[in-house]
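REVIEWER CHECKLIST
Item 1: Sequence provided? yes
Item 2: Single chain? yes
Item 3: Sequence as submitted:
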Amino acid sequence: MKQVKMLRKAGRRPPLPLHLQLQDGRKLHVIGWLRVLPGKRLVGEGRLDGEKVLVKLFIAAPGPRHFERELRGIEALARVGVATPEVLATGALAGGGCFLATRFVDDAQTLQAQWEAAQPALPGTEPALDIICRAVKAVAELHQHGLLQTDMHLGNFLAQGEQLWVIDGDAIESHGDTCLPGPVALHNLALLLGQLPPEWDACQPRLLATYLHVHPARSLAADQLASEVRKVRQRRLADFLGKALRDCTLFSVRRSWTRFVAAPRDEASRMSNLLDDPDSAFTGVLLKDGGSSTVARTELGPDLVVVKRYNIKGFTHWLKRFWRPSRAWHSWLAAHRLRFLGIATPRPLGMVEQRFGPLRGRAWLITEHCDGQDLLAVLGPAGDTLPDPALQEALLQTTRALVAQRISHGDFKATNLIWNGDEVVLIDLDALQAHSRTGSWVKAWQRDRARLIRNWPAASPVARWLDEQLPPA
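Item 4: Structure as written out by the authors:
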């Protein structure tokens, strides 16, 4: 009983190794954690009777609801012949909760891991397209048998050579022996495709054809799918931005009466000293020392990071700022928005706000350092030489993405666009805005467009080329 209580209280760092005494007298040994949902569910690699197993411990109080759903989902998959790892043992844990052990699939990778390894890849190119097609075929097979994957993502498909396994039975719903209704199937497929970067939307017709080849009885319209994918992406973006401000699997967030601190969870330990004292960065290379902000570059282990402090210039300025989110808060969310949508910007590594209860003061934003030169340095102030083809395509790709997502930068000058040899990277996101209304978007983009062109003389080749090539609103 004490062991389960200890696991519930262990948070994100359950002890290892863990030895569980089962009711039938056997011992289950957990040697590594793969996923931890604090106080709810633990997933790890273990040994049972000398065999390698995948262990799921359902430790949430007050009941075994997720355990029962996991079993039902696995049974539903096995019943229709969809490959899923075999259940080797199940049962109750002393002190509450349940366990489930399935066969461990060796030499396997999730499709998510394969997809990440294939990036960056141009939309529609191999092998990235093959990975998505495998997932689409698996989804079509599930739908054909009346099964629904409610937690739809590439991490729930496990590839072992040519064999594809569907995992996470907890998220499998059965709708009987008949295929899924059209609207349900459409939404479920859109949940998968909505996780691809927007530039992959052009591949939807081919992916839909792949789906229909496996499940031809279901007629789905391409325009309906495209509309549903856009809705899914917007909901996922809103959910992701919400997570960036709360303590969860992806982000480490600490709140107190005097401070708010956020960082990606995989960077929180490395960033801890800098998050505790962000002003320590200003002993490094000072990039800007202005009234409204101070910017420095400093070393963090083998890497370079940039720290931007948003200053409070005086009492009057504080009266204008204390009641609303800081510019660091805004830039933190803006950077995550851009990266979620596949638009290049330095990875945000941390955000700190000074507070007095609900009142906000100075704030800091920490990002990766971006190598490269700004466009004014690359093209020269005279603008008498056109950018090379690679830079032309990268710049137009960035502006097309901003237009497609109705995002205005707010200070779209050449020094805020960095060319690193592969892509154009946006920096200084203090005024970035996503527009829901057409009228405000058109005005904002026209201002951005004009601001970029205005960096060079109106009669220069660069200014003329930009005016011809930049997309209208």
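Item 5: Key structural point noted by reviewer: The chain is about 35% helix and 25% strand.
Item 6: Recommendation: ____
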